[in-house]
Amino acid sequence: MIETHNLTKTYKNLVAVRNLNLQIDKGDVYGFIGPNGAGKTTTIKMLATLLKPTRGTATVCGFNIVGQSMAIRHRIGYMPDFFGVYDDMRVHEYLEFFAAAYRIRGPARKKIVDDVLELTDLRGKKQQLIQGLSRGMQQRLGLARVLLHDPEVLLLDEPASGLDPRARIEVRELLKELRNMGKTILISSHILSELAELCNKIGIIEKGELLYSGSLEDVMKEAGSSEVVILGVQGDGKAAGELLRSSPHIETIDVDEKGEIRLTLKEDAPTIGFISELLVKGGFPIVRMEQEQPDLEEVFMRVTKGIVS
Q1: What is the DSSP letter of 226?
Q2: Contact 139, 103 (CB under 8 A)
Q3: Which of 78, 87, 82, 43 is closest to 161 using CA atoms?
Q4: In whole angstroms, what separates CA 224 from the centre of its chain?
């Protein structure tokens, strides 16, 4: 659905995006992360056909961003990090105005407006003035607006920016709903824990260059993130920990006061079955074993340096 080849944007001596190569397939939810000034917004604006690339190519829904912008705009929903609203309009008037701009007419317009209000949980605010909406409700209204024409691809630039925790959770749940509807979503965000929960693919960009791209698990491996295993055993946890220290596949071991064992595996370690085999042979039956979920924040801090373009 989205493919770029050496996509580059420069402003005189400033390289905002350099030789960017992305591939986002139908139904993907792609988390685009990087420090402020890394090139995320510039990339999204080029894909939305609002900026022309200096060189390189990109296609969205099979259409080239240069020369076929109108075909792309009919198929995407673009939500910038900060968007203007008409404060003196009511919620339904705002949506009907944009539905008319999308040339949705007659009874179909009212139905579509009602449908997106229902989807974004704004039906109860239909008659309210926009200026009376909270920041979180305005973000949901922005999402409702970009959904009016049922786009195939959503380009969302910091959709949870500036929201309180409750509003962030509400927006996240809405994005999950859109994912379940089969929408292809490119989303930039600084809330990395939520991206790890929401996205099936991740891209890390810094100083205009894409450092890593792929599934969350692949990014963790490529970035050298250690696999963490947490264990509980019958008997003396400290003694079990000493036994595990003899394994050449284990990087670090920590045992807490309750005897719970936390260990990190070396990159060349086999599957974790060797741990249970070693402990059972040593007389320490396992009562609990779980792999800790990858920490996207840890990887982000490891591979980026906070450098801007």
Answers
A1: P
A2: no
A3: 82
A4: 20
- Would you kindly state where each structural domain of the chain is located, as residue ranges? 2-222, 227-293
Element at 170 (helix H, strand E): helix 165-180
Q: Homologous superfamily of 2-222 in CATH?
A: P-loop containing nucleotide triphosphate hydrolases (3.40.50.300)
pTM of the model: 0.76
CA 257 to chain centre: 37
DSSP 109-160: HHHHHHHHHHHTT-GGGTTSBGGGS-HHHHHHHHHHHHHTT--SEEEEESTT
User: Between the CA atoms of 169, 170, 172 and 178, what dihedral angle is there, to the nearest 10 degrees?
Assistant: 160
User: Which 8-state DSSP code applies to residue 38?
Assistant: S
> Quick check: 169 and 136 in contact, CB under 8 A?
no
Name the strands in the sheet holding 184-188, side by side, starting at the edge strand that comes first in the sequence. 76-79, 153-157, 184-188, 29-33, 201-206, 209-215
Alpha-carbon distances of 253 from 231, 267, 270, 276, rounded to whole Å = 11, 15, 17, 15
pLDDT tens-digit readout, 30-65:
999 888 888 999 999 999 999 999 999 999 999 999
Q: Which CATH architecture has domain 227-293?
A: 2-Layer Sandwich (3.30)
Looking at every residue in the chain, the average pLDDT score rounds to 85
Strands across the sheet with 227-233, in order? 250-255, 261-265, 227-233, 286-291
- Nearest in space to 122 (alpha carbons), one of 102, 100, 138: 138
